[in-house]
Design goal:
Helices cover about 45% and strands about 15% of the residues. With about 350 residues, it is an alpha/beta fold. It folds into two domains: about 170 residues, Glycogen Phosphorylase B (Rossmann fold, 3-Layer(aba) Sandwich), CATH 3.40.50; about 180 residues, 3-Layer(aba) Sandwich (Rossmann fold). Helix 7 crosses helix 12 and helix 10 packs across helix 13. The longest helix has 18 residues.
Length: about 350
């Protein structure tokens, strides 16, 4: 007999880490013969004030006592926090088992929970069989709030299929003979992602190095401001949003991935994708990164908002091609072994079976 699982997600066609996570894992999980997996897409209503009522109605129509387990996938941010907390309340009333996977984690909203919503958290999400997070810090915070169940630190994943027709050895060979070093920033174009620090550090470096190029890929609320800032710089390319094979080609054809974020990150998928393509990483010691990132071995941590530190760490890589090649090999092997979608899906499958068995 198949176990019936419902996974509540954002629109799977939308941009974002949660959609990417489940788009990658669902095809693998659906191949397990003892699971019957369905999804319910919620959110994506913009500023519609009636959206939360619409989602609650959709959810109520979908759930029934024949479901063995429901996955809620909120971020710790105001809108999805309250929406999914009400989902949790509905599930308690119907006595349906559920787990919660917090993907994004807004540190400002965490402080609001500390001040006002701890009791609300415990009466809703606190009834989950298990809670998944992307960082030990987030795990510790949930225990601090008083949750009595198990909190599991999981990871984001990378779609193993994206490296089809990619050879790390060919990339290293091409890099050895290339006269240009290409830096890539691929993320949402938000000030909090460190995009303007990246641009300033790069401009400083071009005063000493003429063989470097910065490509900025993505869309977001600060894109127009960014375009105005770099419009006269021939060494900076801004592409806007891309996806699929074109996105993978940017990872394959650039040399250093730079994401000096000071956003409330869990574990950015783009960092894992860049590593899967053998890229050294420049980033910050935020969220889930600190649990696995090996500073100096996978690239470098930089201080958030510190342009001088970012410039210095980029220069370390620019001046040492041999070191960059070592990092390429290590990152490629590490991510393919630890973070591929097949590895994560197998682990998640075991979690599902354990919760159902013990629920």
């Amino acid at each position: 007999m198949k176990n019936k699982i419902l996974i509540v997600t954002p629109k799977l066609s939308s941009i974002g880490g949660v959609s990417s996570y489940w788009n990658t894992l669902l095809p693998i999980l659906c191949n397990y013969n003892n699971l019957n997996i369905n999804t319910l897409e919620v959110g994506g209503h913009g500023k519609n004030i009636f959206a939360i009522l619409h989602d609650q109605w959709k959810f109520k129509k979908e759930i029934d006592n024949k479901i063995n387990l429901i996955f809620l996938n909120p971020s710790l941010a105001s809108r999805s926090f309250f929406r999914d907390a009400l989902f949790a309340k509905q599930l308690q009333n119907k006595k349906i088992s559920f787990v919660v996977f917090f993907h994004g984690w807004n540190l400002d909203f965490e402080r609001q929970v500390n001040r006002k919503y701890v009791d609300f958290f415990l009466k809703t999400f606190g009834k989950a069989e298990k809670i998944f997070v992307l960082s030990e810090d987030f795990k510790n915070k949930i225990y601090q709030w008083g949750y009595k169940g198990e909190v599991i630190v999981e990871t984001t994943n990378v779609d193993s299929s994206i490296i089809t027709n990619f050879s790390i050895n060919d990339k290293i060979t091409a890099f050895k003979t290339s006269k240009k070093v290409k830096i890539l920033f691929l993320a949402r174009i938000l000030r909090e992602k460190g995009i303007f620090e990246t641009v300033e550090a790069f401009k400083n470096l071009t005063k000493r190095y003429s063989n470097i190029q910065l490509t900025i890929v993505g869309d977001g609320k600060d894109l127009n401001k960014l375009k105005n800032e770099v419009k006269d710089n021939k060494n900076i390319i801004v592409t806007g949003y891309i996806k699929g094979k074109e996105k993978n080609d940017f990872f394959a054809n650039n040399d250093i991935y730079c994401l000096p974020t000071f956003y409330g990150e869990g574990l950015p998928t783009t960092i894992l994708e860049a590593m899967m393509f053998g890229m050294p990483i420049i980033t910050t010691n935020f969220g889930g990164l600190k649990e696995f990132f090996q500073d100096g071995k996978m690239g470098y941590f930089v201080e958030p908002k510190n342009v001088n530190d970012l410039e210095k760490k980029l220069e370390h890589l620019l001046l040492d091609k041999a070191r960059m090649i070592e990092i390429r090999k290590y990152n490629y092997a590490f991510v393919n072994e630890k973070f591929s979608s097949k590895v994560i899906a197998k682990r998640l499958y075991q979690y599902i079976l354990n919760v159902i068995k013990n629920g």
